[in-house]
Amino acid sequence: MDAERLNEAAARLQSLDDRLTYKIRPRSGGSLVRPSPDQLELALRDLAVYTVELKEIVAELLGALTGTPRGG
Prior knowledge:
Blueprint: H1 3-24, H2 37-66
């Protein structure tokens, strides 16, 4: 186990949470107005960025836990 990589991945996860989670969290009570296509595109883009970054962080966490070299 690589404690430094584990700490770096945890810091990246916290950063991701701070930057994007509020954007993709469902609104309580729902919306009374349908979003425009542009608003849907922005929301989808935010979700895509969040998903890809989360996948990279999970891969880094698993690599740190198993001792797999970076990039491998």
